[in-house]
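Input (structure):
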């Protein structure tokens, strides 16, 4: 089946605009021209167990279950090709459609009404790039009143060096539906100089609930730009859990939610800032409807020569309530961090914020060391309590890996 004419014309217009596209407002800028977009077309696999053990271990560390137990379905994209898609019988209701995005665009003419309707096409050169060259992505459509019991899992795996992965993802939750998605992004251990430039558009219809857990584990020379836009209609709920566990060359993310009447959005962000990482991470909530509610919480462990900018924005001109919290624990003398909380509201808006950056207090270490803990053990305990996780649906392999990351992080701190 061919792509529709409107889609092909959209791609052509975007390619013409790309040369004049502006850099992102935040984060490190880099050239997209050095990366290849084509390459080896990977064969489809019939089971995640057919992947070699190294690949299995890497995708397990970003939330996927190889055995697919307590999962409603699985999606795997390697480079720019969907190689595995499985709707698990008995766990994924008939009212849920999971497809490769390119296939969905070919099949559903109505998807034109959702294409770049939240995320501005020309917000910056990275969104323009996705509009011009996107390949693959995951399309999830949850029909009215469908409640999905177990999480749906998806993985974006980068295999080829000097390569850019360009998915465009859609999550469409119809009225009174409910789903939890766990997505993991990870390159192959031998992949070098990779980039992941994505756009995800999330539509939460009236009374629906979408939880999206995203886990990133990159290589130290990866550039990452996950652009996310969310629209939450009346009485809907959107919950985001984001976790970065690795060093990365640069990452910039600023998911933005627009809330209708009596809806809510919650962003939980946890960052391990290591090596020479350049990280610019934040979230924004715009309260467009009366009695909408929102919360942004971000925590980070910052060490080595990493640099972190933490951003948060709550903006409301209606009766609404929101809270913003940014906290960073600096564990190395050469690490740097800044926090940029921003509130904007009318007299009917109740918006609050807290921001704190600093190192572990000596009295906290002394207290634990006086009770028999070594300095490393005490630091690890404080860090683990600071970055505490409570994300439902994560497999044991992820929790084990996070503990290892915390232990490694604190051993390298001063």
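Output (sequence):
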């Amino acid at each position: 089946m061919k792509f529709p004419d409107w889609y092909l014309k959209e791609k052509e217009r975007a390619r013409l605009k790309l040369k004049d596209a502006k850099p992102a407002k935040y984060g490190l800028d880099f050239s997209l021209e050095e990366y290849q977009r084509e390459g080896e077309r990977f064969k489809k696999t019939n089971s995640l167990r057919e992947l070699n053990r190294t690949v299995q271990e890497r995708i397990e560390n970003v939330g996927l279950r190889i055995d697919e137990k307590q999962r409603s379905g699985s999606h795997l994209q390697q480079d720019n090709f969907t190689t595995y898609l499985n709707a698990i019988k008995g766990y994924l209701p008939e009212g849920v459609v999971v497809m490769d995005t390119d296939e969905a665009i070919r099949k559903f003419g109505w998807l034109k009404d959702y294409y770049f309707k939240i995320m501005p096409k020309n917000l910056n050169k990275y969104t323009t790039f996705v509009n011009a060259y996107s390949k693959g992505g995951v399309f999830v459509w949850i029909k009215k009143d469908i409640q999905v019991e177990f999480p749906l899992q998806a993985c974006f795996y980068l295999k080829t060096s000097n390569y850019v992965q360009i998915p465009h993802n859609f999550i469409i939750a119809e009225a009174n539906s409910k789903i939890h998605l766990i997505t993991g992004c990870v390159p192959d251990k031998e992949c070098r100089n990779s980039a992941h430039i994505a756009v995800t558009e999330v539509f939460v219809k009236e009374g629906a609930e979408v939880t999206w857990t995203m886990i990133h584990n990159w290589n130290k020379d990866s550039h990452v730009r996950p652009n996310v836009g969310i629209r939450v209609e009346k009485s809907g709920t959107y919950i985001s859990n984001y976790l970065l566990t690795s060093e990365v060359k640069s990452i910039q993310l600023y998911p933005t939610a627009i809330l209708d009447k009596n809806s809510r959005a919650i962003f939980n962000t946890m960052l391990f800032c290591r090596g020479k990482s350049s990280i610019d991470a934040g979230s924004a909530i715009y309260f467009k409807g009366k009695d909408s509610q929102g919360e942004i919480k971000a925590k980070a462990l910052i060490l080595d020569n990493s640099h972190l900018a933490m951003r948060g924005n709550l903006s409301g001109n209606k009766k609404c309530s929101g809270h913003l919290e940014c906290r960073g624990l600096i564990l190395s003398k050469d690490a740097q961090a800044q926090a940029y909380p921003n509130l904007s509201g009318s007299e009917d808006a109740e918006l609050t914020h807290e921001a704190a950056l600093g190192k572990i207090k000596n009295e906290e270490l002394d207290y634990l060391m006086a009770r028999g803990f070594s300095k490393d053990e005490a630091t690890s305990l404080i860090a683990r309590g600071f970055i505490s996780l409570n994300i439902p649906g994560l497999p044991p392999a992820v929790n084990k890996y996070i503990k290892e990351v915390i232990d490694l992080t604190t051993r390298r701190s001063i």
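Notes: The mean pLDDT is 92. The radius of gyration is 21 Å.
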